[in-house]
Amino acid sequence: MSNVSILWVDDEIELLKPHILFLQNRGYDVETCNNGYDALEIVQTRPFDLIILDEMMPGMTGLETLPKIKEIRPMTPVIMVTKSEEENIMDKAVGSNIADYIIKPVNPNQVLLSIKKNVHQHQLVTEKTTADYRSEFGNISSSFSSADTFQDWVNIYKKFVNWDIQLIESEDRGVREIFSYQIDEANNEFAKFIKRDYINWFDDKNPDRPVMSHNLMRSRIFPIADENQKTTMLLIDNFRYDQWKMVAPILNNYFQVDTEDFYCSILPTATQYARNAIFAGLTPLAIDKIMPDLWLNDSEEGGKNKYEEDFLRRQLQTLGKNYKWIFEKLVRPEASKRLIDNINKVYDADFSVIVYNFLDILSHARTETEIIRELAEDEAAFRSLTRSWFEHSDLFEILKMLAERKHKVIITSDHGTIRVENPVRIQGDRETSTNLRYKTGRNLKYNSKEVFEITRPELAHLPKSNLSSTYVFAYNRDFLAYPNNYNYYVRYYKSTFQHGGISMEEMIVPFLVLTPK
Q1: In angstroms, rounded to a whole number, what is the distance separating the alpha carbons of residues 510 and 154?
Q2: 48/65 Cα distance (integer angstroms)
Q3: H runs (alpha helix) in 319-354
Q4: End-to-end CA distance of the chain, in Å?
Q5: Which pairs with CB-CB distance under 8 Å and at least 24 residues apart come from 114-118?
Q6: Which H or E element spans position 426?
Q7: d(CA 357, CA 331)
Q8: Contact at 8 Å (CB) between 250 and 401?
């Protein structure tokens, strides 16, 4: 904790020599002066890590000196020392952006504590976080073997997200590597769990089956809409729990979070399957059977997500929901601006559904555009980019408007996404689907130990384009690569964000219910 420079400004600085020696003995470099004019000259000539400033000084007071110091060194934390606890003085000091204040008589340990809080906080917090994670490591690993339900895996995933956000500040590269290995281990165990239990979740009598895409609206969303006069469902494509943790503080002034829960995306965790299942309230196999003209298989030409509003209309009619409702799909910025201009139609509706596609577009842009790739090079950067986008987005404006009109808001997604790293070879004919995290077709060749294969798609309630169709899903951070142009393919897609396969990040989807403050 040495090499920290401090400027202490006090008209009675001679009386503070024992305090200054106390700090110097702990390795701090302390320079002193006894008035505001000298303080300004000193800070112009050299930077300091911290300034301690007396509030009551003859000539130029501390409160008068403070803004002038901030003009020269705006980022330097200033601790104000005052004899008075009067509220107006505190208000002026806090309003002038002080880091902390100390009431006279000054106690040296009190000064030391304030220094640590304002200069060493980042280091102390990251050191403690790293130590806490190391001590928790064994408990987390042992929880994998006992995780027997989807809720068990939700709890594990939440822990990982919270640790990931905390450890990102750690300068201990070793602990970051350990954490990365542990997430991979968890995802491998999660894949085994899915392989064992997924098909059984389509049994209505299974008490352990989680809420899934096709019953999300019936079991979670419509009950909320039934109970509230105005409800808006916001589905953000590709929205993960760690991204929600970045966005939540921004919404804190406008909403309180009533529910922070999760549901399970169906396989494939791809928009065509998962989102259509949500709005239809049916599995993809059922959609294909009941509305064959509205379902396109992977091998068929045409848009795969064109009929979400039709699916929702049918589900509402089937369940006898007589809401006055609207459906808005916002893919381009001009669509968001149009909705803001016509926000009254959301206000007038009992139940509004808004689909927002920005994060999915960002994921694809990251694959195709070098500058976006650099901006979102890993999960932490992707989270940061999500936060920056959200803070200045039309979506945030829409949410503030909904808060003002006291709408209950549901935020969720159709699936998450994962950064892929490991290529797995697969072969297929020209009819094979193009997604990197799953393939479906009739002539697939692969190592069955490297993937989750479903040779009878009807068991997973998936349609098949021909009698011998098979579905194959990638695990963890794997992606499926063709032997032709293999090296180019691998270089192009390695470290990109993809979805469609099996991982906690893709399948464990946040479900959030917000009430306006």
Answers
A1: 10
A2: 16
A3: 333-341, 344-348
A4: 43
A5: 114/79, 115/4, 115/6, 115/23, 115/28, 115/50, 115/79, 116/1, 118/50, 118/77, 118/79
A6: strand 422-427
A7: 5
A8: no
458 vs 267: CA distance, rounded Å: 12
Give one DSSP letter per residue of 130-190, joined into a string.
HHHHHHHHHHHHHHHHH--SHHHHHHHHHHHHHHHHHHTT---HHHHHHHHHHHHHHHHHH
Closest CA to 34 of 3, 4, 1, 57: 57
Are 81 and 55 within 8 A, CB to CB? Answer: yes
Cβ(182)–Cβ(236) below 8 Å: no
- Cα separation of 21 and 23, whole Å? 5
Query: What tokens does 432 get?
Result: 């094979």
Give this prediction's pTM: 0.79
Residue 120 burial (C-beta neighbours within 10 Å; 0-12, 13-18, 19+): middle
Q: What is the DSSP string of 248-290?
A: HHHHTTTEEEEEEEEEEPPSS-SHHHHHHHHHHTS-HHHHHHH
Q: Put residue 148 in one of left, alpha, beta given phi > 0 → left and psi -120 to 50 → alpha.
A: alpha
- Other C-beta atoms closer than 10 Å to the C-beta of 456 total 12
pLDDT tens, per residue, the chain with 517 residues: 458 899 999 999 999 999 999 999 989 999 999 999 999 999 999 999 999 999 889 999 998 999 999 899 988 999 989 886 655 555 555 555 788 888 888 888 889 888 888 887 666 666 777 788 888 888 898 999 899 999 999 999 999 999 998 887 666 777 788 888 899 999 999 999 999 999 999 998 999 999 999 999 999 999 999 999 999 999 999 999 999 999 999 999 999 999 999 999 999 999 999 999 999 999 999 999 999 999 988 877 777 788 999 999 999 999 999 999 999 999 887 889 999 999 999 999 999 999 998 766 665 555 555 666 666 667 888 888 889 889 999 999 999 999 999 999 999 999 999 999 999 999 988 778 889 999 998 889 999 999 999 999 999 999 987 877 899 999 999 999 988 888 988 888 888 889 999 999 999 999 999 999 9
What type of residue is 438? Y
